[in-house]
Amino acid sequence: MSPPLVLTIGEPAGVGGEITLKAWRARNHEHLPPFFVLDVPARLAQLAAALKLDVPVRAIAAPEEAAALFATALPVLPIALPHPVVAGRLDTANAPAVIAAIKQAVELVQQGRAAAIVTNPIQKETLYAAGFPHPGHTEYLAELAGGVTPVMMLAGPELRVVPVTIHTALRQAIASLKTADIVTAGKITAAGLKRDFGIARPRLAVAGLNPHAGENGTLGREDIEIVAPAVKALRDAGIDAVGPMAPDTMFHAAARARYDVAICMYHDQALIPLKTLDFDRGVNVTLGLPFIRTSPDHGTALDIAGKGVANPASLIAALQLAGELVQRRVAEHAPA
Fold it and tell me: Which neighbouring-strand residues pair with 77?
């Protein structure tokens, strides 16, 4: 049997605690793999009582205790927060504990004591104020993994997307776009789809940067000079890649049927179609890491924190997908 998944606390003032409780309540109906959460047991128990969620919370001393307990209670590996949590109110003093929980989760999965990491949403501005030097989860996880090159893929029931440039201003994203970065993202994505998603020959659709993919240079030459050479390089490497494709015509149903993932040039080009198609079930998957990491594809939702109305669907999907990826890796290494 595989070890349980480890779920991180995320931003304590956000909806992470609520959706964690609701995900555990849906464990049987949604066929979730066993997981434990790095959090404050008393905090989650108090939150469950306040929201009238029937969730027994049990502290565990080690991840190995989680699987046997999971059927009857939510296993929590305790961490400490220096300040009490107030729903919807950010507190920089708690940020170091949030960062430490991510690091602890990586250590547990590297030790083989957790099968995969699922991260609750973080509030980046709070972490930045505490001295966090990374743009987000993805880059920090890559550092903890030894400095690998990560690729952020967002996966939903109808679409998978990869933004080449991620958490950066649009002006900077356009200025920094390079052929080599598109090629790297494409190669890591193709390898990840083969290994973890069971797609023998992934089909990559590469979006153009400009309207109509530049209209043969009349609307900008980036698609000719930057994107098209990347598509050729991917094809020369044996990857089924097409493009640059006009971004405004590549996300309708018939177009989506012709590829397995869309490689997009900037953040919103990727995330707008994904979240429009299915906001609640999108999952963030980090490719290129030596371990599995998924996350809900939404933020901390401070405006609804503590009100009992947060939708756990994306976290449930992230837990389900992490479990599926673990099973594929286990099967890959099973004796023939």
Answer: 38
